[in-house]
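job 3f2a | input accepted
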Amino acid sequence: MIKFFRHIRQRMLKENRFSRYFLYAIGEIVLVVIGILIALQVNDWNEQQANRAREVKYLTGLKADFAVDRNNLTDFIEDKERKATSAWLLLNSPPPKTAVEIQRLDSLSWNVNLWKTFVPSTKTLDELIGSGNLSFITNDSIKSMMLDVVQQYEDLDVHTAHMRREYDMYLYDRTVFLKEQFTFTDWENFLATNTVSFRVDASEARLAILEQQWTTLLQDLAYRNGLKLAMLNNQLMHQRSGETIHEIERTIALIEQEIKETE
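job 3f2a | predicted structure (263 res):
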């Protein structure tokens, strides 16, 4: 093709057809410029498509991570509700008189004391921020809502750390010092089968000791304050976790809409 155009130029020069040669030269320049512009547009389109594909990949990953967090927060909320209810029942329980009542209080105490944390799934977000690719998310609303959810995660983490300190001081320490732990656990069966089971066959003398331990614990001021704090903190975290789930669901819906627009 280049030889073809060169041949035409040479023929025009030999025939002294300068005006036509000049027009032809301009036309050739225009064609070259148009070709360059088309090539740039094609490259730009290809780059946009590649960026869009990468954005959809990130959005899909974010959606999956948020779905995991939503499910984990649902379990977290159930745990908070169980803790608040169990703390209320302990706070209003009379001293035990029988082995069954002791076992009931042990079960409630276990519900309150069993520690559960929420660990968000941030694999995709960490990759976005760590690689500096957050700009690939072009929908500003998604970025804003996503960062709002992350802020709520951080607030939950701060509140969890605060609650852990109160648990250690008011509940764990007092329980360990004032009451025997794992009262009716069948340790022989546990060592043999690695299965937790219970055996309520204590003597009257031991039952009397356990009853007195629970009576002392239920009347302990620090422990009672700890139960009140557990009720308050777990209920607040229950509420905040519910609000976070709501924000997660809104973010997922917006991500799904953004992905659908590319199909």
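job 3f2a | The chain has one domain: 55-260.
job 3f2a | closed
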